[in-house]
Structure formats: C-alpha cells, structure tokens
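Bumping with the actual sequence this time:
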Amino acid sequence: MKKWCYALAAVALMCVFGLPFSEYDAAALLPIRTVQAIGTPQGITILSEVGCGEGKSWEEAVSDLRRNAAGRVFFDTAEQVVFCGRAPVRAAVESGILRPSAQVYFLPAPMEPEGLNDYLSAHESDLTVADLRAGYNI
C-alpha cells in the first residue's frame, strides 16, 4: 500500500510540474560533427557544417554561430575540432562545450566543411580535447 502512495504522489507531481527534461523540436536540432576554429586579426571565426560565427573571443564566436544558425546548435556532438592559425586553443578546450573525446587537429588553413568529417574520420588523431584539458602544453 505504501508503494502505491509513493507512485501516486510521483504521478501527481509529474502532472503538476511536468517531466524534468527539456523539450526540443527535433527538426530544429543542429548537431555539429566538425568544428573549425580559425584565428584571424579581428578575433576568431568558427566554421562548421551548420554555419559560421565570428567574434573577438571564443565565447563571442560561439554565441554568433548559435544566433545565426537555423536551429539549436549542439557543440557537444562534435567528433573533431580543427584549430587553424592562431586559434585560441585554451579558451576553446576550457569552455566545456566540446566533447572530451573529440579528436583535435592543427591545420595551417581551414578546409571546406562539406566532407571534412569523413576525411578526418579516415585520418584519426591521437590527441583529444580531454588530453588538452589534462595538461598538454597548449
């Protein structure tokens, strides 16, 4: 009898307050597979298959990309992170929005976003975001 009371109370609370999960329109979700961070004289540019963002810092560029995107952008789905030029590696890695297991690449110039994920998946990197957070000299 006591278990039924707890179950009934839980259902009542759920009816009043709703489920503790965020609702998303699945059509508006934009998971990123590859992020390119390009250091420029004006700041940083973030390039991905879902759009582009620019700003004076990593945070501003991320905000700009999210603002310009056609839906809700998820950085924690990125499988690869590519740093080009004088990109702010430390700020990107310590921001907490990148998946720890994302592979890290350093390239002299950005590449076309279309097909980049497949190319980098075929040429895996031993360096990950977690490695950089753990203290590799960046």
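The tokens above came from a reply further down the thread. The mean pLDDT is 86.
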